[in-house]
Amino acid sequence: MFNWGSIMCFKKIIKNITIVIVALLAFSGCFQASTNNPGDPANVAGLALGFDINSLNRSNAGYTISQTTGHVTTEAGGTSTFTITLTEKPNSDVTVTFTSSNTAEGNISPSQIVFTTITWGSPQSITITGVDDLVDDDNKAFDVIVTSTSADKNYHALSPYSITCTNTDNDTAGFTVNPVTGLRTSESGIFVDFTVVLNSKPTANVVIPSITSTNTAEGTVNLSNLTFTSINWNIPQSVRISGVDDALADGMQFYNVVLAASTSGDSKYSGIDPSDVTNVGNWDNESKLIFRTALTFNGNLGGIAGADQKCMTDANYPGSGTYKAFIVDGVNRIASITPGQGDGQVDWVINADTSYYRPDGFTLIGIANSKALFSANLTNTISATGINFWSGFYRPDNGTSMTNVTWTAGVTSICTAWTFGGPGGGDGGLYGSISGTDGRAFGGAFGSPAIGSSCGGSSFSLVCVQQ
Ligand SMILES: [Ca+2]
Ligand SMILES: [Ca+2]
Ligand SMILES: [Ca+2]
Ligand SMILES: [Ca+2]
């Protein structure tokens, strides 16, 4: 009798025998496992459980991949490549798909290729490209997942294979404070701004909890804290520093603006201390400046008016304000008629009870007395560098005390009221010592009383005083 049950049993026996043979062949190494195809039946120790009998005619279906680990890409766009072929000829087209396990870190191109029965052995190049973000998120590992589809059962749905890759971060949490030094405010209302911005996108709000001036008697800030979010983190926020007025002739005073360490739920930002804004200077508005001209001149200054004009056009002119020449002729400009008294002043350039500073605004030259004269030695020389300057102040003796300066004009030693520049000696011109802090700083700088320098032969600077 024809027994269907016997036939089915016979087929079952054949199949099981076949499986056992295949298993023995596999374990004995007769089937060469594809390194890159963990899904290859011959690679699977438990192949007897999941074996597809249709693959018996071929056992090495898989991929040959040039580099399966250690790929490195960068957020700056750095790429890595590998090549791929099939391990053996398919009997139908094989579509291989490449998927990034994290498209926020890496992309793969092309994402899909088709191997044909002709091209299966030709290496195809695949490029992994790092994806940029704006977060300090460290280097991130991700995988390129390789999957397949094919009408060839050996190649259809091979077990997904992972190629390992790391995307290198290019972000660093931090603050940019700009500028961080050298800002100037003034007692007359000049204010300045600095800005703060984050260097990378935070994952939580970032707060600078405290912004303070180290000397609120000279400068104050308009904001006491700043908050940055994941939305506005890259938009600079401005903080305004305003100078504070006082009634002191105190010259430029310096202070800092201190930004406290940040607080944030983003561990990359928590505790980062932004740069402070240092060396902020507040210009005084009780004090005045004095500068030395860059140009030098002979005794013909064009008179007092000409000398004043030279101050206003000199390269060392500070850029604002009216300056007049620190020089006398006994007629158009008089500092004193009676020695040391400051009487009868005409168009005099010094103010009473005022501090005079170098153009830097904080190097004190000296403080004028109530007669608008200097009666004590200078604190600092008028200029750090340079040569002597025409002045016209008469000094009757060799005394070096400031009291030896009469502040009267040396009428016969002022180069004919500063209109004579030679040739010849003229009547000579009195001059001050740029390197002096005693009486020689102002008149008859060297040697015997009232000795002037040749009006035609000497080239001296002018000293110019802010009005
Ligand atoms: Ca980045
Ligand atoms: Ca990043
Ligand atoms: Ca002041
Ligand atoms: Ca002040």
Mind sketching the topology for me?
Elements: H1 4-27, H2 47-50, E1 63-65, E2 71-74, E3 79-86, E4 94-100, E5 106-109, E6 112-115, E7 124-130, E8 140-150, E9 161-168, E10 175-178, E11 184-186, E12 191-198, E13 206-208, E14 211-213, E15 219-221, E16 226-228, E17 237-243, E18 253-259, E19 263-264, E20 277-283, E21 288-292, H3 303-313, E22 323-325, E23 355-357, E24 364-367, E25 389-390, H4 415-418, E26 431-432, E27 463-466
Parallel strand pairs: 2-9, 11-20, 21-23
Antiparallel strand pairs: 1-3, 3-7, 4-6, 4-8, 5-7, 8-9, 10-12, 12-17, 13-16, 13-19, 14-18, 15-17, 18-20, 21-27, 22-27, 23-24, 25-26
Bound molecules: calcium ion (4 copies).
What report would you give on this structure?
The chain folds into four domains: 4-57; 63-168, Sandwich (Immunoglobulin-like), CATH 2.60.40.10; 175-283, Sandwich (Immunoglobulin-like); 287-467, Mannose-Binding Protein A, Chain A, CATH 3.10.100.10. It is 9% helix and 28% strand. The chain is built from four helices and 27 strands. It has helices spanning 4-27, 47-50, 303-313, 415-418; strands at residues 63-65, 71-74, 79-86, 94-100, 106-109, 112-115, 124-130, 140-150, 161-168, 175-178, 184-186, 191-198, 206-208, 211-213, 219-221, 226-228, 237-243, 253-259, 263-264, 277-283, 288-292, 323-325, 355-357, 364-367, 389-390, 431-432, 463-466. The longest helix is centred in the N-terminal third of the chain and has 24 residues, at 4-27. The chain starts with a helix and ends with a strand. The model is unreliable at 1-11, 17-57 and 445-450 (pLDDT under 50).
